[in-house]
Amino acid sequence: MTSPTHRVRITALAMSLAAGGALASTGTAGAAAVSAATAGTGSAAVSAPIAPGLYQSAYSERNDALWVASSEGRPPAAVTASRLLKVDPDTLRVEKTYAPVTNAATGAVQSVYGVAVDDEHNTVWTTNTRDNSVSVYSQRTGEHLATLPGVNHSREVVVDERRDTVWASAFGDGTLVAFDSGTFKEKERVTVPGSGPTGLAVNERTGSVYAADHTGDRIIEASPGAGKPRLIPAGDGPLSVALSKNGRTAYTGDQTAGTVSVVDLRKGAVTRSVASGSGTKSVAVDYRSGRVVAVNRLSATVTVVDPRKGSVVKTVATAALPNHVHVADGTAYVVDKSASGPAGEDLLTRFRVQADG
User: Fold this and answer.
1) Which candidate in 2, 178, 268, 314 could, as Cys together with 187 as Cys, close a disulfide (CB 3.0–4.6 Å)?
2) What is the pLDDT of residue 77?
């Protein structure tokens, strides 16, 4: 599901764990939690080296696993390695590493970037941005089940389990593409000419999907039976979008402005803008507290925003270049692109959004 209430076991981590077990090319791996660093919060944040080239993560409640996408090599350079990683959310150890398949026509690896889980069908979906496609893998075995082409510069995926639908954003041609999560067949395309859809969120009660339009400084809303998409103002340069628990409010992470915008979806207007940090890239909502967690790529911080008060209530320091945040049952998981692990790995950082008790 898109933003479900997950149940994550949080266990005590011994700070004497070894700093860097090497990742295996397949099977289990030995990355261990190695550090705790929080700026001005009083609560611990734990980090672990995972692999080079981290992009996004998604939590599976069914399997109590965090799925992480990794690809090395930035354009115009070729991809040198890509991995779909299954990580234990308690220990932050890599349990399994799966290699993406190769495009038979081009010989290029279908490297993974965006990731989302479908617990109903026990699958994990990835965006293969350089291949203009999305792929489906089994959560149980890691087997590649399908590659679905025709998603131009595929960036993110989101799952609507209630409607057996997976949406993907095609940044390259301003399109949102819907697939049947059981048959993998394409169901629908919604195109907004001139737009650049990036981050996605879905309201499973209504079936409406929301995309951050980085090009148009707005949110694209595509609703069942609406006939045409609705365009809603957002902040400056939104890359990511998340929804409140009741689905009435959207939050965008505005990369250009360095803000979190609070958007009233009924009114179709920005009601509040909160300065979060330089290069705000990813946002997620903690349904327990109602707070918004924002990753600030250029500030090397994660800020926790109270959208009702319009203020930052917590700032967590990360390694350089934090890239994405996922929140599950009050716990935030942040992947970075710092290459600061003992063998040049990027880090996964975990912290509680709001102190328990």
Assistant:
1) 178
2) 84
| Per-residue confidence (pLDDT) for residue 186, from 0 to 100 | 98
Predicted pLDDT at 78: 84
Cβ atoms of residues 345 and 50 within 8 Å:
yes
Give the Cα separation of 229 and 188 in Å (integer): 13
Distance CA 196, CA 184 (A): 24
Hey, what are 121's tokens?
């069908």
Alpha carbon 114 to chain centroid, angstroms: 7
Residue whose pair of structure tokens reads 């959310």 in the numeric block: 89
Tokens encoding 196: 């650049």
What length does the chain have? Answer: 357
Give the closest residue to 163 by CA, choosing from 127, 197, 208.
Answer: 208
Q: What is the value of pTM for the model shown?
A: 0.90
Q: Is 160 exposed, middle or buried (0-12, 13-18, 19+ CB in 10 A)?
A: buried
184: how many CB neighbours lie within 10 A of its CB?
18
Give residue for tokens 């599901």: 1
Structure confidence at residue 9 (pLDDT) = 35
* Three-class DSSP labels, the chain: CCCCCCCCCCCCCCCCCCCCCCCCCCCCCCCCCCEECCECCCCCEEEEEEECCEEEEEEECCCCEEEEEEEECCCCCCCCEEEEEEECCCCCCEEEEECCCECCCCCCECCCCCEEEECCCCEEEEEEHHHCEEEEEECCCCCEEEEEECCCCEEEEEEEHHHCEEEEEECCCCEEEEEECCCCCEEEEEECCCCCEEEEEECCCCCCEEEEECCCCEEEEECCCCCCCEEEECCCCEEEEEECCCCCEEEEEECCCCEEEEEECCCCEEEEEEECCCCEEEEEEECCCCEEEEEECCCCEEEEEECCCCEEEEEEECCCCEEEEEEECCEEEEEECCCCCCCCCEEEEEEECCCCC
pLDDT for position 206: 98
Which residues in the chain show pLDDT less than 70?
1-43, 356-357
Q: What pLDDT is stored for residue 123 in this prediction?
A: 98
Amino acid (one-letter) located at 138 = S
Residue 76, both tokens: 């115009």
**Nearest Cα to Cα of residue 3 among 136, 177, 200:** 200
